[in-house]
Every structure is written in structure tokens, then in C-alpha cells.
Design goal:
The protein is mainly α. It is built from 14 helices and no strands.
Length: 369
């Protein structure tokens, strides 16, 4: 609810110029990346999961209460950005807890990871729509109040369902420090960063491209987003079947190829029918990426599972940090269509890294045998 609403709130409700969104966004991403790394270090050292999630909930609640009491830009870039960044770190913590749960309760890892990612996408499908609907009907203050109610449900679920003694020290420790496994982990994370950059370049440019350049009706961006997200969730939940027949790297390469096709189709949209086809392709490629990428990165964890999960989540945030300002700059000089086509460049980078990783891993396997 908060991630897409805060930029709107800064400009529309508080009346600040759009460039001030960049200050809030940059602070938020830098703090989230730092908290993710800190939490990962603690988890890999044997810290319990529950206190860290509780700390994330406390940060979220504090941020919401502060903006309800003192609704100002300075509140947003001080207390709120700190609290929301702290709460965002719960994502990588929950991915680590999910991996622990899969090992503890003998769940199949790939399907369980797919469910975790599907729930993340489902949250993105519901949260922004709910936030903007409430803002349009009753005002921004009700959005923060509703988010506070959601935080109460989050806290109750955490208190009643999360085992207090669960800790990551049940996971195996690194057998080899550094070396090829660490290089492969960084290559995997780099590929995810390229995917994230491509995704944000395209998705950020699409709404304005549809309305301003393609001449589609104003409902088109919302319809496109719904089709894309619904397709994404279906594909995420079917990726475990794919992983039983193909390797994770093969799934990601297929995702990259589909992504290139999606960008080329979306950049040529002139009517609603083509938009629907492009949105389905966008959901298919990103759903395949989301369903496979977490398991792919975890395969190179070498016992430091929380670190791998934190690097994975950070790669998505940093990719968004690169892509966000780039959309505005490209659109300023060449239009939003060019921003969509520009997404092909990082996607080609992701495919290059994946092909290199597959070759590097194959060569090492042959050397070891």
C-alpha cells in the first residue's frame, strides 16, 4: 500500500514538486539495502527470525503513526523513511524463514518458494489498488489508517503463528569460504539486478506511453496492470512444474527471451487488443523470473542463506533505483516508447550473465569430475 502511494502523497496531497520524490526514494532504497545486509548477517550468525520481524512491524507502525500525527514532508524523509525501510527488510527475512520452514517441515523447496513469491505479487496486486481507491473516496489520512489496521493483522499473525525459537543456525554452514560458489552467487544476483532494471524501465514507462503516445483510453494502464499481475501469479505457481523438467538457469533464460518479445510488442501498442497481448507476455516473463529466481539464487548460498536472500532482494531494489530516474531522462529526450525499448538492453545483459554462468558452472563441473 505504501510504496506506490507515498510519491503520490508527496505531490498531490502535500503539494511538493516531483523532484522531491527522488530524495525520499533514494533514502528509502539505501536504508532498505543497509537493513537487509544487517539482518542477513544477524540471521546467518544464529539470530532468531521472530524478533527481527517484530522489529520490522514496529518500524512500520511507528512510521504510520508519525505521518498521521505530523503529516509533513519532513516527517516522511525522517521517521517514515526509516520505519518503512525497516519494515521492508522483513521481505528477505521471511524468504529466509520460508527456506528454514521448507527444511524443517520437509516441504518441497521450489514450490514453496514459488508460493512465497506469489504472495508477494498478490500483495502488489491488491495493495496499490486499495490505497488509491481509499484515497479517492475518503482522503489520504484514511489510507494510513487502513494500513495501520493491516499492520495490526500482520502483528497478530506474527505473534500467534511464528515460532519464537526458530533460528537460521539449523541451516548448514559454508563448507568452502569464497571461491567459485561465491562468484556464482554474485553472477546470479547481477542477473537479477538486470532483470529488475528492465522490468522497472518498462513498467514505469507503460502508463504514460499508453495514454500520451499510444492514444489509449485512461482505463488502459489499470487494465494492463491487472492482466499482467494475474498472469504473473498463475505463471509463478506453475514454475515448480517447469523446474522438475528444466534447470533454474534454463527457466531464467526462457524468461529473458519472453521479456525481449514482451518489450518489443508493448512498444508497438496502438489498440487495446495488442495491449492485452503485451500485458500477458509481460506477466508471463516476469512471473517466470519471480518463480525461478529466488530458488536460483539460493542454490549458490553455500550455507549463508540469509545473505543470499538479502542480496536477492537488494538486487531488486537497486535495479529499481537505477531504472526509476532513467525513465524520466529517456522520456524527456526520446519519449516513453523509447524507454520501453531501452528495457531490452538490461535484459540482454541478464541473458549474457546467465549464459556465462551456465558455461562457467559446466566448466567447473567437468573440472571437478
Amino acid at each position: 500500500m505504501m510504496a506506490p502511494f507515498i510519491p503520490f502523497y508527496i505531490v498531490q496531497e502535500l503539494g511538493h514538486p516531483p523532484w522531491q520524490i527522488s530524495i525520499y526514494s533514494a533514502l528509502g532504497i539505501l536504508l532498505t539495502v543497509s537493513f537487509n545486509r544487517f539482518f542477513a548477517t544477524r540471521l546467518d550468525s544464529g539470530q532468531r527470525f521472530a524478533p527481527l520481524v517484530g522489529l520490522s512491524i514496529s518500524g512500520y507502525v511507528t512510521a504510520l503513526i508519525s505521518v498521521l500525527i505530523w503529516p509533513s514532508y519532513w516527517t516522511l524523509i525522517s521517521v517514515c523513511v526509516l520505519g518503512f525501510s525497516l519494515s521492508s527488510s522483513s521481505l528477505s527475512t521471511m524468504y529466509s524463514f520460508g527456506r528454514y520452514s521448507a527444511a524443517r517441515y520437509k516441504f518441497e523447496i521450489a514450490p514453496f518458494n514459488a508460493w512465497l513469491r506469489a504472495m508477494t505479487s498478490l500483495g502488489w496486486m491488491m495493495g496499490p489498488a486499495l490505497a488509491f481507491f481509499i484515497a479517492g473516496q475518503w482522503g489520504a489520512e484514511r489510507v494510513f489508517a487502513t494500513a495501520l489496521c493491516a499492520a495490526t493483522i500482520w502483528a497478530l499473525l506474527w505473534w500467534h503463528t511464528m515460532p519464537r525459537e526458530a533460528r537460521s543456525d539449523v541451516l548448514e554452514r559454508p563448507q568452502i569460504a569464497g571461491g567459485d560458489t561465491d562468484r556464482l552467487l554474485w553472477l546470479a544476483v547481477t542477473a537479477c539486478l538486470f532483470f529488475s532494471t528492465a522490468h522497472v524501465l518498462c513498467s514505469s514507462a507503460l502508463p504514460l506511453f499508453y495514454v500520451r503516445e499510444a492514444g489509449l483510453p485512461e482505463y488502459a494502464p489499470g487494465l494492463s496492470f491487472s492482466i499482467k499481475t494475474a498472469t504473473e501469479i498463475v505463471i509463478i505457481l506453475t514454475t515448480p512444474l517447469l523446474l522438475r523438467r528444466f534447470s533454474a538457469v534454463a527457466g531464467l533464460i526462457l524468461s529473458g527471451v519472453l521479456g525481449l518479445v514482451a518489450f518489443l510488442v508493448l512498444a508497438q501498442v496502438k489498440d487495446v487488443g495488442t495491449m492485452v497481448a503485451g500485458a500477458a507476455l509481460e506477466g508471463a516473463y516476469y512471473g517466470l523470473f519471480a518463480g525461478v529466481s529466488l530458488t536460483y539464487v539460493q542454490s549458490f548460498a553455500n550455507g549463508r542463506m540469509a545473505r543470499a536472500n538479502a542480496l536477492y532482494v537488494n538486487s531488486l531494489f537497486i535495479g529499481a533505483l537505477f531504472a526509476g530516474p532513467s525513465v524520466g531522462m529517456i522520456a524527456q529526450f526520446s519519449g516513453f516508447q523509447m524507454a520501453i525499448l531501452a528495457a531490452c538492453l538490461p535484459m540482454l545483459g541478464a541473458l549474457g550473465v546467465l549464459l556465462f554462468t551456465a558455461r562457467f558452472r559446466r566448466r567447473n563441473d567437468l573440472r571437478s569430475t
